[in-house]
Amino acid sequence: MSESPLLDVVGLTTRFATERGEVTAVDDVSFSIGSGEIVGLVGESGCGKSVTASSIMRLLDERYTSYGGEVVLGGTDLLALPERRMRKERGRSVSMVFQDPMTALNPVYTIENQLIEAIRAHRTISRREASAIALDLLEQVGIPDARNRMRAYPHQLSGGMRQRVVIAMALSSQPRLLIADEPTTALDVTIQAQILELMLALRAEYDTGVVLITHDLGVVAQTCDRVLVMYLGQIIEDAPVGELFRQPYHPYTIGLLGATPSVDADSADELQVIPGRVPSLHDVPVGCRFAARCAFATQQCLDDPPPLEDVDGVHKVRCWNYRTVIASQEVTHVA
Amino acid sequence: MVAIDLSASMRFERARERRALLRKMLSNGGLVVGALIIFIIVLCATVGVLIAPDPQFLEPAIRLQAPSPAHWFGTDGFGRAVFSRVVNGASTSLLIGTGTMGIAGSLGLIIGLYSAYYPRADAILMRVCDALMAFPALLLAIAITAALGPSTWNVIISLSVVFTPVVARVARASALSIKQQVYIDSLRAQGARSWRILWSNILPNVVSPLIVQATFIFADSLIVEAALSFLGAGVPAPDPSWGNMLLEGKSVLFQAWWMTVFPGAAIMLTVLGANLLGDGLRDLLDPHQRALRPVFGFIRRDRKDKK
Q1: Cβ of B306 under 8 Å from any chain A Cβ?
Q2: Is-above-0.95 flag for pTM?
Q3: CA dist B211 to B166, B274, B279, B294, B295, Å?
Q4: Do residues A41 and A125 share a domain?
Q5: For residue A130, which phi and psi values (nearest 5 degrees)?
Q6: Which residues contact A62 (CB under 8 A, 6 or more apart)?
Q7: Do A190 and A271 lie in a common domain?
Q8: Which domains are present in chain B?
Q9: CA angle (B111, B114, B118) in 5-degree steps
Q10: Are residue A165 and residue A62 in the same domain, yes or no?
Q11: pLDDT, tens only, A181-227
Q12: Is residue A169 part of a domain?
């Protein structure tokens, strides 16, 4: 962590022009990732996780999108690059694994052809050489009988196999940063674990930095080094993974953890639900964005937006009353 | 070995899918009948032309003769064999139909795909298409052939101008829906070049709805060609075309019904065949699931993605 970070996102802001006016989908998001580090980006649907990812890759339709801030990857600000240069960075410096492996592969081409295409996007080599690399990649992501599977069409593979192919494709040009947008959400639980293990192994091998987007806190606990919790476009808590699970500071994080079912919980315990619902991006509250749903909200929360406060050098939280929150947590722990 | 089993099972599955596809094609009555009709017409236009007597051969002594064993479809006002002219008209009609289908199809495909992918080009190209589509097809075709002069190739050119916007619309619509697919985003995330995404990844996915559209263009262009020739703006007189045969037959309709009935029936039959074929193909390729059912490689599996 001491070396200069691989990716440094500083004040990333993404705005969309919509028919009902401009909305800020990602608001002043800052974080950094070192080589080989896995950072989890957590939050419920619509909180801006995926938009953050797409903003780093600059995949959004730039006619309706305006970016602010900086996304510095290995010394270059990706947001400042012209599209032509940005295309060259995609795949080679930063790559992405998508949520649904069912739709992330082109149905008309074989696995081999798609891998060759991905490899040759950044290297001038013959199809034969690319094919050898493709085979190698498939073996690395643990596809049995890779030589034959290469000639299969996507629909002939299972979901887990397809996700392995998608990962192989994302890694084909050995990017320094991999963004995985809910890579396991569409998979069976048993396959989920395999895919996560695969990602951990590949991370170790290539020393790739990983942004893991998920709404599954179990996945976070298993894989991540650090967690960012997002709510309505903002990062509200940023902590090392053990720290966050041991002592969450933000009421929303506490709510999320409480809303996670666990096998060993007493069956009499009901799952907690966070009351209320996420406000629309069209009318974002003036003060704290979570205030309306928060049990700890005070007048200050409704009036002033809280800053992301650095509590102890590793743990940051965006809450006016986190001390009260912690204190109340300790009470419940004792009780 | 496990490895051998896997590849064998994959081969087996592909063979099974191919058989299932064949069964499905044969069980589709419209498709089979349509294909059969078109096949017969094509046979007439190719082999028939070689066998049938010269359609220009004049025999004024036997003019306006009713159908008989010597002249199956009778003779026309100049004593030419109507049968031979209908058969030769088939090759003219097919040339115009396939020519239009080919030119309008490929031009429309290029314009449609291009405007689906590049919003700025879209704004211009689609307005041009709108303008062309605002004219009734026949009127526009008459205007263009009138300007170019009547000849078979000019008919093809004018019909291509008429039908290109139709194909472009269809191509654009399906390309836009393919463009939304995750695998296109995924390609962009891998740093694929725009032209690769467009021409080698979106294109094969829009081919199936376009094949269906092409058969309808074929049928439509036959009708418009017949109308053009009937109005004297199409294939010029000595060359036989179904449309100008109707025109010749019109003045003697009550003396020689065979001069209009046979070319008319030929038009009807061909258009019917093309439409049946098109409908059959549409059922077979099912445009509602085209993302999962491309034409290339005949990948097929009845799979309703459950989410």
Answers
A1: no
A2: no
A3: 13, 12, 11, 11, 9
A4: no
A5: -60, -35
A6: A83
A7: yes
A8: 21-298 (1.10.3720.10)
A9: 140
A10: no
A11: 988 888 888 888 888 898 899 888 889 999 999 988 888 998 999 99
A12: yes
Interatomic CA distance for residues B119 and B293, integer angstroms: 27
pLDDT at position B175, please?
A: 94
Same domain, A89 and A204: yes
Q: A121–B183: do the CB atoms touch at under 8 Å?
A: no
**Boundary (domain end) residue, out of A114, A142, A174:** A174
Helix axis angle for B182-189 and A159-170, nearest 10°, is: 30
- Listed range (B22-31, B93-102, B146-155) with the worst mean pLDDT: B22-31
Determine the pLDDT at residue A274. Answer: 83
Distance to chain B for A257, nearest Cα, Å: 26
Determine what percent of chain A is predicted with pLDDT higher than 70. 95
Tens digit of each residue's pLDDT (9 = 90 or more) over B81-101 = 888 888 888 888 899 999 999
- Has residue A109 been placed in a domain? yes
Structure tokens at A174: 């050995």
Question: What count of other Cβ atoms lies within 10 Å of the Cβ of residue A4?
Answer: 11
Task: Give the whole-number percent of chain B exceeding pLDDT 90.
Answer: 31
| pLDDT tens for each residue of B116-147 | 999 888 999 999 999 999 988 888 898 998 89
- A135 within domain boundaries: yes
Mean of pLDDT over chain A: 88
Contact at CB, A108 and B205, closer than 8 angstroms: yes
Whether the predicted pLDDT of A2 surpasses 50:
no
Bin A174: left if φ > 0, else alpha if -120 < ψ < 50, else beta. left
Give how far the C-alpha of residue A164 lies from the chain's centroid of Cα atoms, to the nearest Å.
18
Residue A208 shares a structural domain with residue A149: no
CA gap A252, A139 in Å, rounded:
42
Q: Write out the residue range of the structural domain in which residue A252 sits.
A: 7-93+175-334
* Last residue in a domain, options A174, A195, A230: A174
**Residue of chain B whose Cα is closest to the Cα of A56:** B189
pLDDT in tens, A228-260: 999 999 999 999 999 999 889 999 999 888 887
Q: Number of structural domains, chain A?
A: 2
pLDDT for the residue A331: 67
Whether A87 sits inside 8 A of B193 (CB atoms) is yes
Same domain, A281 and A149: no
Hunting for tokens 């100049």 — which residue is that? B78
| Confidence at residue B96, expressed as pLDDT on a 0 to 100 scale | 92
Cβ-Cβ contacts under 8 Å, A95 against chain B: 189-190
Residues linked to residue A240 through DSSP beta bridges, in sequence order: A226
d(CA A208, CA A73): 12
Contacts of A121 in chain B (CB under 8 A): 190-193, 196
